[in-house]
Amino acid sequence: MLNAWRPITWYLSIGLDGLPDNEKSRRFAFNVIMLAGFGAALGYGAFYALYDFDGLRVAWIAAFACTSIILLPLVAIRSLRLALFLGLAVGIWVFTTLSYFLGAGTGLYLYLNIALLAALVVNGKENLTDTIVFCVACIVAMVISAVYFQEPSGIVVVDPRFQLLVLLTVVVAMPLIIAFGVMTLSFRVARAEEALAAEHARSEALLDNLLPAEIAMRLKSSPGSVIADELPEVTILFADIVDFTPRASSMPPDDLVKFLNWVFTEFDRLTEQFGLEKIKTIGDAYMVAAGLPTARPDHAQVIADMALAMLDVTARLTAESGQRIEVRIGLHSGAAIAGVIGTQKVFYDVWGDTVNTASRMESHGEAGRIQLTDEMKQRLGTAYTFEPRGSVEIKGKGLVQTYWLTGKA
Fold first, then answer.
1. Coil, strand or helix at 308
2. Architecture of the domain spanning 219-408
């Protein structure tokens, strides 16, 4: 069954490769209509050859129509406009000639409605002048056939019963041909819509992965708008893999990427578990935030829990891999500004003194430890345990009193 459909599938796909979607749809519609026309001409040629074997004039006209129509998709590869003109010319000549031979009572000229439909579907508004010319030509040809060719010419054998039989075939075949064309086109439209829906879903999923869900919704509802929020209370975490530079210089590229993906995938799992927002990775650094884009009262506590869990994860990864994996972690709470930047590769970022201070807490920290400011310690309260580190010189801020977060009370 599949092999039987293969020639039809091949014919319908002639000239489609490399075309843009809108042009591909027009070309496919043209191929469908030509295939339907070929089937109709072939059927009538065989039918009249059996009816009047001695006078094959009508059969030869049908054979000419078959040959012309079946080759037109190849012409369309060079010029769809030329193929449309040729197809229209063949259609008008064939059906007016048949009407002349067999009489208008056969209703054969009504098939020009399919040619008119082809002009509307294939050409449409792309070339309005051609569409109007095609439609006028079809209507004029049908009017001439109906008015001037009412009686058979007498050149071939025709009787009233034969005319009635041909008219019945027109009444039955024309809706079937139109139905075939519409169904074939609708299947293609359905496939295109499915592909479009899948692409849309993929784009939506990608956007949701790049941005917080709330920000993604705002961006989709107001494309091109500036998204910037002033956040009075957030907590920022920076984590950096210790001794990553010498590790990177000694590892093959594939192994290095696999290593980073292995570690950061575990951190991503924690981020999702604690309901936080991963902001970005910068080399071997991992940045996550709490309290944005939606405020939450426990932003400091949940980030502290995340930091402690990261130490547990790196300890487990060390045991599993047999290689020492440690991170420096820095925390700070305060006000910040968050927003979306970029147009091609958009991403959600956070700025402000809070971000800078959290970054300094990490960079001035120690392997396997969580450093935080006195302000962050006060927010956490007595639910956690700390170890004083003393004052640390922070660029742009001077001496800052810091602590190590050691666990939960």
1. helix
2. 2-Layer Sandwich (3.30)
Q: Which residue has the tokens 């201070």?
A: 357
Element (H, E) at 391: strand 384-394
Average pLDDT over residues 265-290: 90
Assign 307 a pLDDT band (cuts: 50, 70, 90).
very high
The predicted structure's pLDDT at residue 371: 93
For CATH 3.30.70.1230, list the domain ranges present in the chain.
Answer: 219-408
Residue type, 123: N
Look up residue 44 and give its two tokens.
């009538």
Q: Give 267's contacts (C-beta < 8 A, 6+ positions apart).
A: 239, 278, 286, 288, 310, 313
Band of residue 274 on the pLDDT scale cut at 50, 70, 90 = very high
Residue 367 φ then ψ, to 5°: -60, 135
Distance CA 239, CA 359 (A): 9
What pLDDT score does 55 carry? 52
| Residue 174 identity | M
